[in-house]
Give the backbone structure.
Amino acid sequence: MTHTEMDITAELVRELLRDQHPDLADHPLRLGARGWDNQLWRLGDDLAVRLPWATESADALLRKEHAWLPALAPRLPLPVPVPQRLSEPSERFPRPWIVTTWLQGEPADRAPATRAEEAADTLAAFLTALHRPAPTGAPAGRYRGGPLAEYAEGFAAQLASATELGLLPDPDAVLAVWEDAAAAPAWAGPALWLHADLHPANVLTADGTFCGVIDFGDLCAGDPACDLAAAWLLLPDGAADRFHAAYQPTPDAATLRRARGYAVLKALACILIGDAGDHGRPGGKPTWGPPGHASLRRLIATAGG
């Protein structure tokens, strides 16, 4: 993705609201988060403004959320940010942006789930509800939700980088998990709705369990194994089996093997982004490293299980 960071200030956001949504322009406004693609500004108690700022692809992702998420949200058992208004490019800001609902909670990279059983059941219920056959015309994945063979080159590059940086105690064990996953039979069912980006910063927690899911920019149709990888990335030690038992329909062995491969990809990405944050490199987030390392440890410990 090409990064094209824009200077977004509270004054600019306020002006944009006055131009296109004057009824909201006087609500209290403060910065909520700077993500990979978008900035999030909290608007009053219940709303937020999401504006693309750092990647060229962010425009299309916001439009996709606005088009599809309002219809999906009512059937989901966890709160998700529902787009309320789509705002078009203007002279002040040459990109689309949205007003969406604001969710309470702390990102799981900062406040991990600690109540294992409740968290496993909650995550399973959410993905059971989300994973329904997607309609014709549903968006395809942005390098998500397809056959693992499509990600072999990316995995090799991530593994090499993490190994060269000395971030992996046992690179061969990581490779073994990946090779087993890549050898699993491909998904033969219908393309299902996927969140496709369930890393710890995109899931919210409160009181030790999950209370919301955010950032549906990668919403797409594909292999449910992509999302089932979250069991190793988000849950406390020992909770994956309960999650798999609660998720319906019960995933078969091949799906779980592929899910482990997706989890390895996510874990390596988290580890590399975390290391970049530890050393002050652009795009780094120090809080991403610990969940990535924990995920790899769980995957290796249960290899062949």
